[in-house]
């Protein structure tokens, strides 16, 4: 895996602009902040983010992928205004689950998600070197 950082660009904080990787690809999609019984973790966006990340890692583990194999992630939120002020609280959640690994990430605000109570949905692509 190689971080793609053009010369002279400031390094982004908390994500990468680009990554190249070779290997077996593992994908997740539609991962929200509910538990194995499909109960939403909380009405709070930070708690849903935490549970959704844990769920992504659990799904990846089913095929031998780990957090450090994630090369791309899209995070959908129903409110940027609710998400952004919590960045300081989200950083330790990220580090606790993903470590110091920062893939290429896009954050997208959406009107709503399929599950009405969901405030966060994550899709990820991992590449496991063969």
Keywords summarizing the entry:
single chain, 130 residues, alpha+beta, 60s Ribosomal Protein L30, Chain: A, four-stranded mixed beta sheet, two-stranded antiparallel sheet, 25% helix, 28% strand
CATH architecture: 2-Layer Sandwich
Q: Count of DSSP E strands?
A: 6
- Number of helices, counting only DSSP H or I runs of 4 residues or more: 3
CATH topology: 60s Ribosomal Protein L30, Chain: A
Order of SSEs: EEEHEHHEE
Q: What kind of assembly state do the chains in view correspond to?
A: single chain
Proportion of residues in helical segments:
25-40%
Instruction: Give the spatial strand order of the biggest sheet.
Output: 3-6-4-5
CATH superfamily placement: RutC-like
Largest sheet: 4 strands, mixed
Mean pLDDT: 95
In whole angstroms, how far apart are the ends?
12 Å
CATH hierarchy class name: Alpha Beta
Stretches where pLDDT falls below 50 for ≥5 residues? Answer: none
Structural class by SSE content: alpha+beta
């Amino acid at each position: 895996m190689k971080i793609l950082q053009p010369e002279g660009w400031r390094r982004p904080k908390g994500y990468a602009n680009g990554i190249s990787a070779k290997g077996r690809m593992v994908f997740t999609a539609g991962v929200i902040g509910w538990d194995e019984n499909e109960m939403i973790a909380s009405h709070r966006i930070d708690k849903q983010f935490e549970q959704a990340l844990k769920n992504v890692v659990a799904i990846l583990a089913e095929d031998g992928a780990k957090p450090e194999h994630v090369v791309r992630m899209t995070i959908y939120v129903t409110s940027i205004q609710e998400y952004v002020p919590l960045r300081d609280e989200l950083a330790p959640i990220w580090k606790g689950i993903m470590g110091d690994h920062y893939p290429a990430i896009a954050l997208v605000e959406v009107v709503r998600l399929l599950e009405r109570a969901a405030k966060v949905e994550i899709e990820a692509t991992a590449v496991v070197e063969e």
